[in-house]
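Lab notebook, page 48
Experiment: co-folding of the full assembly
Goal: obtain a model of how the components sit together before planning crosslinking
Operator: M.T.
Materials (sequences as entered):
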Amino acid sequence: MQLFPCPFCGLREESEFHYGAEAGNVRPDAGFVSADQWSDYLHMRDNPKGATREIWVHLTCGEFFMMERDTVTHRVMGSTLLEDATHSA
Amino acid sequence: MTRRYSALTLFKEGLTGQTGWEKAWRSPEPKSNYDAIIIGGGGHGLATAYYLAKNHGVTNVALLEKGWIGGGNTGRNTTVVRSNYYYPESAAIYGLAHRLYKGLSKDLNYNVMFSARGVLTLAHSEAGMETAARTVNAIQINGIDSELFSLEDVRRLVPIYNFAPDARYPVYGGTWQASGGTARHDAVAWGYARAASRLGVDIIQNCEITDFIVEKGRCRGVVTSRGTIRADRTGMAVAGHSSVLAAKAGFRLPINSYALQACVSEPVKPILDTVVISPDTGVYVSQSDKGEMVIGGALDRIPSYAQRGNLPVLENVISGMLDMFPVFGQLKMMRQWAGIVDVVPDSSPIIGESPLPGLFLNCGWGTGGFKAIPAGGTMLAHLLATGTHHDISRPFDLDRFARGRLIDEAAGSGIAH
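Observation: model returned without errors.
Model output:
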C-alpha cells in the first residue's frame, strides 16, 4: 500500500485518493472555441512518462489538491493546496 | 535447414537430434532505407509487418522494437479472444480479428493454440439480466454469435461457481459467446514474427526510437539507438507508450496510460473449461492449457508507466476471484505482473494517419488489445500500403474526438474498464 500526502491530513493510504486530471489543462473560454480547441481541452493529454503534476482528491476529507509525482517510479515529490498552486502548464 | 513445422519435419528432425531447424526469424542489421517502418514489436506491430508483406506485397519493411518482441502487453495479457461488442463499428473490427484468429495457426504455420472454449459474462441482478438481453440482441444484429444464459445454463456450464444464496453478487444468468476463447499470447507474437521474417521483413530488436525525421512537414523516418532509418511511411503500434512517441512527433493523443495487472496460480488439473467474466466483482478467470488459473481485474486508476501494479487492486482482484470461486481458496498464486495500457475516453482504438503526415497510428486498444491483434495489423498494414483508410478502420480515426463521433464501448458493452 502506497502512502499519498494530503495537504490537510498528512500521509494516508492510496485507496483513500482518487486521480482527477493533469494539472494545467485550463478550460478555453475566450469567445469562440473551435471544435479542435474544445477536443484538445476535453480529450488530449500530455500523459508524461516521468515527472508529472496532477490534480487529486482525498476522498475522506474532500479536498482537491495538486500532487507532484513520477509515473515511472511512483515516487511522490510533494502535494500543494490548489489555492497555493499555480494551475497552469 | 528445416523451415516448415509439421508432424513429418518434427519426426525427421527427431532422427537427427533436432539440429536442423532454421531460426524462427532473422536478426539483420538495420538498413538506412525502407519502404515502410513499423515501430513496436508487439502483436499489433508484428501482425502489421506480416499483413504488409502478405496482403500488399510490401516486403522492404523494418520492424523496430526497443526491447524484445512480445515483451510488452503481448506477453502480459490474459489471452482472451472475443468479439461480443455493442456497436457495429466495433463488431466489424473485433469480428475480423476473431475470424483471423480462427485460421491463424494454419495461416502462419505456427500453433497459436486458439481454443474456442467460450466466454461467459455474468449478470448479477434483474436489471443486469435486462441489460444482458439488450446486449445480446445488439450483438446478434451485428452478426456476432451471442446467447442469453439463464441461471440454470450458468449452473450447467460452471458448476464450481459460487451459487450460495448469501453470495455477495448472486448470479442471475449471463451472456455467452461460444466462439470466444483464449490463444497462446507468446505464440501469436512469435508466429507473426517468423512468418513476417520469412516474407522479407527485417525484425530489429533493441532498437529504440529517439526522434522522428520531419522534412517539409512529413515524417520521413526515425532516429534510433542503432542509427538513422528512413522511409516514406512509418506506423506506430506501441500501446501505453503512444503518448511518449507522439510528443517526439509534436502532437498529443487522447490517451491516459495505466497499469493493468494480472496474476496466475500454480497449475492444477482441468477444472474450468471456459472464460468467466464477472462485471460486478470486476474479475475474470480462465484456466490455461498448462493448468494455471489466469486472473485479471480492473485498472490501477493511477497514471503509470511502471509495468507493476499496486497492492490494493491486487487485493480486490483476489477477493473477487474467491467470491466467485470459493473452491480456489487453497490455490497458491505463482506470479503477478502489469502491463501499461493506453486508455482512451471511449474505450475504442485509434487507427489512422497522425497529425504528422506520413506517420500512422494503431493505438488506444486499452485493456483489450490482444484479441484485436490480427485486425489491428490488417488495418495498419492497409494504411501503410495505401495511405488511406480501410472501411473498417475509418470510424476509428483520431478525428472522431473533434467531431464528437465517439464509439463509446465503455458504456456500450459494459466492460469493466
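Interpretation: Chain B has a mean pLDDT of 95.
Next step: discuss with group before ordering constructs.
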